[in-house]
TrEMBL record:
<feature type="domain" description="Carbohydrate kinase FGGY C-terminal">
    <location>
        <begin position="257"/>
        <end position="446"/>
    </location>
</feature>
<comment type="similarity">
    <text>Belongs to the FGGY kinase family.</text>
</comment>
<protein>
    <submittedName>
        <fullName>Rhamnulokinase family protein</fullName>
        <ecNumber>2.7.1.-</ecNumber>
    </submittedName>
</protein>
<feature type="domain" description="Carbohydrate kinase FGGY N-terminal">
    <location>
        <begin position="5"/>
        <end position="243"/>
    </location>
</feature>
<keyword id="KW-0067">ATP-binding</keyword>
<dbReference type="Pfam" id="PF02782">
    <property type="entry name" value="FGGY_C"/>
</dbReference>
<dbReference type="InterPro" id="IPR018485">
    <property type="entry name" value="FGGY_C"/>
</dbReference>
<dbReference type="InterPro" id="IPR018484">
    <property type="entry name" value="FGGY_N"/>
</dbReference>
<dbReference type="InterPro" id="IPR013449">
    <property type="entry name" value="Rhamnulokinase"/>
</dbReference>
<keyword id="KW-0418">Kinase</keyword>
<dbReference type="Pfam" id="PF00370">
    <property type="entry name" value="FGGY_N"/>
</dbReference>
<dbReference type="GO" id="GO:0016740">
    <property type="term" value="F:transferase activity"/>
</dbReference>
<dbReference type="InterPro" id="IPR000577">
    <property type="entry name" value="Carb_kinase_FGGY"/>
</dbReference>
<keyword id="KW-1015">Disulfide bond</keyword>
<keyword id="KW-0684">Rhamnose metabolism</keyword>
<keyword id="KW-0547">Nucleotide-binding</keyword>
<keyword id="KW-0808">Transferase</keyword>
Length: 495
């Protein structure tokens, strides 16, 4: 018989996927039906996303989905902060620029002359990441002001695709909260911030809640692709928030790390926490599904492993992530640490070389082999998780004994075990497919197939087994932590 599906598009920094989801026997069943690469393209020194190609892949996904049965709805999630500008005729002015592009260098200082850092934090509750939308827009304002003059609407990446699909220009709440342009207490665009940066407020579309129906798929797209119309749903379109909607717990107070290219580390609150402690610790308040707030640290995740692997491939050695992990396990622990968030590790390029330089400069044993490099990265991430746990607990005056780890990065058992060892917390790892589960579940809630987020989390818990890691050798890890702090002092001071 005819199964009803929802279709999720999950865009990551290097690839994207289309996944079908259906409810069966109280579980969400998922099937990946389309996977594509999502490579940025550098042209004349600017790093762009290939926006039209991305939209092409969305169409491919829809075409592939139709043969499985009835597709009731679709929803898109992507990384945060990036956007496209639309002119008054609805045309895209240029490809979206990648958040790793260098245009935001030094923009934070320039923005803080227009609106002081603490004032900006007090309104938006957002931590300061060099790539936040506000810094990207300020770069345009200063260097290419004609782009903003010609622009009629600003649309975040998923909103841009939703517009191409339906003709509706909206801004979904979770994504909008990554911009540093929202008044996070009121959950509205901050006119104050927008004016002080020198932007026109008409540029910014109406905000809508996660789970809103944006509209039906346009008639001409249905005709082009030979499909029946379906609802286009604005899911929790910031990938981190799709993932956090899928943390498989019924507890109100929980802490999670969403592990992918980035590690998003935080907890879910009803209201933002904005104060001196959270400003000093640079913790973000970002919107979650259901109008919630995620009190969140944005840390580098497996980016350094991914980028090292790319370098080895360029050098003619293709190792799988599994092989790298096996080699890393053989290496003697605690020989070297790096601060994964140090500036030199942000751009793409020769990551192993930069790691070696960092270790040399800080007087540590220099990691040479791929196994040594990957061991260094993993133990450094685990130590970073410990330090950031301390900061979050300090700001909230709470203690956690279990950390939920979710997302693709938890396929590294080594990282999960090291996290337990470094933090002294039990790690509950799962689901791997958190973002896709969250995207699908929010669509099912919008369609009335799942009652609410509580029920969604129960269903997700049943749908994928959780793996547990108990802390081991915590004494040794504590001693090594002191060394980690010593080595990474420079970055902490720069904070
Ligand atoms: C994770 C993520 C982070 C965001 C970063 C850049 O994929 O969405 O939450 O800070 O990408 O947008």
């Amino acid at each position: 018989q005819n199964t009803h599906y929802v279709l999720a598009f999950d865009f990551g920094a290097s690839s994207g996927r289309a996944i079908l989801g259906a409810l069966k026997d109280g579980k969400i069943e998922m099937k990946e039906i389309h996977r594509f690469s999502n490579d940025p393209v550098i042209v004349n020194g600017t790093m762009y996303w290939d926006t039209l190609r991305q939209f092409f892949e969305i169409k491919q996904g829809i075409v592939k989905a139709k043969k499985y049965g009835t597709i009731d709805s679709m929803g898109i999630d992507t990384w945060g902060v990036d956007f496209g500008l639309i002119d008054e005729h609805g045309a895209l002015l240029e490809n979206a620029v990648h958040y790793r592009d260098e245009r935001t260098r030094g923009m934070d200082r320039k923005v803080f002359t227009k609106i002081p850092k603490s004032e900006l934090y007090n309104i938006t509750g957002n931590e300061f990441n060099y790539f936040n939308t506000i810094f990207q827009l300020n770069a345009l304002k200063e260097n290419r002001p004609w782009m903003l003059e010609r622009a009629n609407k600003f649309l975040f990446t998923p909103d841009l695709f939703n517009y191409f699909l339906t003709g509706e220009k909206k801004a979904e709440y979770t994504m909008a909260t990554t911009s540093s342009l929202l008044d996070i207490r009121k959950r509205e665009w901050s006119e104050e911030v927008i004016e002080r940066i020198g932007l026109k407020k008409e540029l910014f579309p109406e905000l809508i809640a996660s789970g809103s129906i944006v509209g039906p798929l346009k008639k001409e797209i249905c005709e082009e692709l030979g499909v029946n119309s379906m609802k286009v749903i604005a899911v929790a379109s910031h990938d981190t928030q799709s993932a956090s909607a899928a943390v498989p717990t019924q507890e109100k107070d929980f802490i999670f790390i969403s592990c992918g290219t980035w590690s998003l580390y935080g907890t879910e609150l009803d209201e933002p926490v904005i104060g001196e402690k959270s400003l000093e610790m640079n913790v973000s308040n970002e919107g979650g599904y259901g109008g919630k707030i995620n009190f969140l640290k944005n840390l580098t995740g497996l980016w350094m492993v991914q980028e090292s692997r790319r370098q080895w491939i360029r050098e003619g050695n293709e190792y799988s992530f599994g092989e790298l992990e096996t080699q890393a396990k053989e290496v003697e622990l605690f020989q070297n640490f790096v601060d994964a968030n140090a500036e030199e590790f942000v751009p793409s390029g020769n990551m192993p070389r930069r790691i070696r330089e960092y270790c040399k400069q800080t007087g540590q044993t220099v990691p040479e082999t791929p196994g040594e490099i990957v061991c260094c990265i993993n133990q450094s991430l685990a130590m970073k998780y410990r330090r950031e746990l301390d900061k979050i607990q300090y700001c909230l005056n709470k203690k956690y004994d279990t950390i939920h780890m979710i997302g693709g990065g938890i396929q590294s058992k080594l990282l999960c075990q090291m996290t337990a060892n470094a933090t002294g917390c039990r790690v509950a790892a799962g689901p791997v497919e958190a973002t896709a589960f969250g995207n699908i579940a929010v669509q099912m809630i919008a369609l009335g197939q799942i009652k609410d987020i509580k029920e969604a989390r129960e269903i997700i818990e049943r749908s994928e087994a959780t793996c547990y890691y108990e802390p081991q050798n915590t004494e040794e890890w504590s001693q090594a932590y002191a060394r980690y702090c010593q080595v990474t002092k420079r970055q902490e001071e720069e904070l």
